[in-house]
From TrEMBL:
It comes from Nocardioides aquiterrae. Keywords: Acyltransferase, Cell shape, Cell wall biogenesis/degradation, Peptidoglycan synthesis, Transferase. This is Peptidoglycan bridge formation peptidyltransferase VanK-Sc. Belongs to the FemABX family. Signal peptide: none annotated.
């Protein structure tokens, strides 16, 4: 018997949040609060209905074309629907029609669907092998049939994969590093780390590094201290820092949904802040979102101490996964991102490849103009 037809319409943020609360894992970028964080974009929550029941949901961010009232509809790491369904057209066709009615000339989404995984030992061996340049040169520990099916269906439905430069897309990362936590206790997770990580965690404790966690309204008094260290980190590591107002808005919006949604972790040595991080959790998925560390006192290993504090907090909260977010797919010894991968590999987790971000042009002339505009902005890279 055929399934009843799905319909898509805007839903109140309260209904969207209630749906998210019933899910085991939803990206924090698909919570209603994230629309408040991205205040420069118009946003709406959409619901997928079957027989009057809410069966899926998504947060849509609308990016306006210069001088036109037409938009790119963007669903970062979403939408949250049944990606295991063998008929994705039943979900995506009404979604596209709804977004087109809202003035969208194209849709961009990032299905939360994994294609491949590589365990830490495999990645470590790849880094040590000069013949290996990218993760794709290594045989994966696990290959997902669901991921392959989703890629095939999206291609058949006219969606276009977005080109990735060294693993980083213009939107969200296609490659991340995660530590599986389901069914594991602290001692097991610690034992899974490499010797250097375990030694550094032990050294931080011996040196007297003290960690603390601040949630909800307790974050705000500590936020300026975090941001000062974050700006210092940005200057050292040559990236553009976000302003303090961005973090204030993020804390306010996410904490309003759930006081435990966002937590600021600090590591201090003799009263001096040596490392600080922001952790986010939705259901059973915990993320390391932002980090900062002092150039001084690096020998006390505050970064390892604060990461271990976040992992322990995720285990205590019943999380299935601790997500260290983006990595590149490049493993070459001359790649400037290699140090970041090596740091994350030390946790004993796994490199994970998602299907990536996909576009559906709804107005081909406008989409082509937008694509050209974005290519010029990125210096010719797609």
């Amino acid at each position: 018997m055929p399934q009843p037809e799905l319909t898509v319409r805007e839903i109140p943020a309260t209904d969207h949040l209630e749906f998210v609360r019933g899910r085991r894992s939803v990206s924090f970028l698909q919570t209603p609060a994230w629309g408040r964080v991205k205040s420069e974009w118009r946003h709406e929550s959409i619901g997928f209905f079957r027989d009057g029941e809410l069966a899926g949901a998504g947060l849509v961010l609308y990016r306006q074309l210069p001088r036109l009232r037409r938009y790119l509809a963007y669903l970062p790491e979403g939408p949250d629907l049944d990606w295991d369904d063998e008929d994705l057209a039943a979900w995506l066709t009404p979604m596209a029609a709804h977004l087109k009615s809202r003035g969208a000339f194209g849709v961009r989404m990032g299905p939360p669907v994994v294609t491949r995984r590589w365990d830490a030992a495999t990645v470590k061996a790849g880094i040590a092998d000069d013949a290996v340049r990218r993760l794709g040169d290594l045989a994966p520990t696990e290959r997902s049939s669901l991921g392959a099916r989703v890629v095939s269906q999206l291609t058949e439905l006219g969606w276009r994969p977005q080109a990735v430069e060294g693993g980083f897309a213009a939107g969200q990362p296609q490659y991340v590093f995660q530590v599986p936590l389901a069914g594991r206790i602290e001692d097991e997770v610690l034992a899974g780390m490499n010797q250097l990580w375990r030694r550094n965690i032990k050294k931080a404790a011996k040196e007297g590094v003290e960690t603390a966690a601040y949630a909800g309204t307790a974050i705000e008094p500590e936020l300026k201290t975090f941001h000062d260290l974050y700006v210092h980190t940005a200057e050292r590591d040559h990236f553009t820092p976000r302003p303090l107002t961005y973090f204030s808005t993020m804390v306010e919006a996410l904490a309003a949904e759930d006081p435990d949604r966002i937590v600021l972790h600090t590591a201090r040595h003799e009263g001096t802040l040596v490392a600080a991080t922001i952790a986010i959790r939705v259901g059973a998925h915990a993320w390391y979102s932002y980090g900062a560390s002092s150039t001084e006192k690096r020998e006390v290993r505050g970064s390892n101490a604060v990461q271990w504090a976040m992992i322990r907090a995720a285990i205590a909260a019943g999380a299935d996964v601790y997500d260290l977010r983006g990595i590149t797919d490049t493993l070459a010894s001359d790649d400037p991102h290699l140090g970041l991968i090596q740091f994350k590999v030390g946790t004993g987790g796994e490199a994970v490849e998602y299907v990536g971000e996909w576009d559906l042009p709804l107005s081909k002339p406008l989409y082509k103009a937008f694509d050209l505009y974005m290519r010029r902005r990125s210096g010719g890279r797609s």
